[in-house]
Amino acid sequence: MPQSRSSDLLAIYSHITSRDRQLLQLLDDHHVLTTDQIHQLFFLARRTCQIRLSELHGLGLLDRFRFARTGGGSQPWHWTLGHNGHRFQAAAHERPEPTARASRQAVQRVSASPTLTHLLAVNEFFVRLKTHTRRHPEARLDRWWSERATTRQFRTITADGHGIWTAAGASVGFWLEADTGTEPLGRLAGKLDRYATLTRRVGIRYPVLFWLGSAAREEHLHRYLRGRRDVLVATATHETDPAQAVWLPVGATGRVGLAQLPTDHGQPVADNPNFDDGVFVL
Q1: Per-residue pLDDT tens digits for 211-263
Q2: CB 205 within 8 A of CB 262
Q3: Do residues 80 and 32 touch, judged by C-beta distance below 8 A?
Q4: C-alpha to C-alpha distances, 216 to 43, 126, 221, 248, 276, nearest whole angstrom
Q5: Can you tell me the distance from the alpha carbon of 90 to that of 125, in angstroms, rounded to the nearest whole number?
Q6: In the 3-class helix/strand/coil scheme, how is 97-154 assigned residue by residue?
Q7: Integer Cα distance of 118 and 116 in angstroms
Q8: Do the Cβ atoms of 166 and 132 come closer than 8 Å?
Q9: Which tens digits make up the pLDDT trace of 27-78?
Q10: pLDDT at site 234
Q11: pLDDT above 70 covers what percent of the chain?
């Protein structure tokens, strides 16, 4: 197998599988995934996952870090693109080739980011949806957009993530707000104004999903939002499977599945990125 820091990227192409390319793209889009998340997304056996990740690390396609646990031991490995992974993705998307220093700095920024826990929570939400589709092939996660991609496409929207979920014959767009309990409820509620503005401008009406850290936090948010009708809000907690009937719309008394929430992709106008020449695009 080639040495990990080979300057000839082409020399390792014969070792990159289609599954590896999917993983590289996910890390390019979403920055970091844990061993457990990658296992759920791509592998049946955890040991097979660990071996393959070690091989990709040896090829320089992946890099990794982990922190000590309070009370002893270590957290699981957190995986990012390595230098060759950054180079491969740059070539795939016609971006300038990064230097080794730039690749190392990218890993350091992710590892030291004060929002790392929040980013992992956002990614965990989508990983659980994607894992559900492995067991239920009739379901699909048609979009998994990061905060950066969502803002680039919708401009005024700064959701933690955006997706389109297809199940039970319905395709539902949604905005994700993954809450870690650090913001006051008023700030959470204030985020809804931008979604309401987008609805008025181009007709996009997607549910805003607040994924909350506890049942008490969920109850308090429902009380705070009682009576608000301009934006559909539904809530669930982190210990739930978002693909199941765990979503409680504000003002409702029963929980429903994600595919049961109402949705509207908006009007086919130039200012709506859901449409290209009047045709809906994923």
Answers
A1: 999 999 999 999 999 988 899 999 999 999 999 999 999 999 999 999 999 99
A2: yes
A3: yes
A4: 35, 23, 9, 14, 43
A5: 27
A6: CCCHHHHHHHHHHHHHCCCHHHHHHHHHHHHHHHHHHHHCCCCEEEEEEEHHHHHHHH
A7: 5
A8: no
A9: 999 999 999 999 999 999 999 999 999 999 999 999 999 999 888 888 999 9
A10: 98
A11: 98
Q: Note the pLDDT tens digit of each residue in 70-104.
A: 888 889 999 999 999 999 999 999 999 999 999 99
3-class SS letters over the chain: CCCCCCCCHHHHHHHCCHHHHHHHHHHHHHCCEEHHHHHHHHCCCHHHHHHHHHHHHHCCCEEEECCECCCCCECCCEEEECHHHHHHHHHHCCCCCCCHHHHHHHHHHHHHCCCHHHHHHHHHHHHHHHHHHHHCCCCEEEEEEEHHHHHHHHCCCCCCEEEEEEECCEEEEEEEEECCCCCCHHHHHHCHHHHHHHHHHHCEECCEEEEECCHHHHHHHHHHHCCCCCCCEEEEECCCCCCCCCEEECCCCCCECHHHCCCEECCCCCCCCCEECCEECC
Whether 7 shows a pLDDT value over 70: the answer reads no
pTM of the predicted structure, to 2 decimals: 0.94
The values of phi and psi at residue 162, to 5°, are -140, 140
Interatomic CA distance for residues 20 and 79, integer angstroms: 13
Burial class from Cβ neighbours inside 10 Å (0-12, 13-18, 19+) for residue 87 reads buried
CB 19 within 8 A of CB 41: no
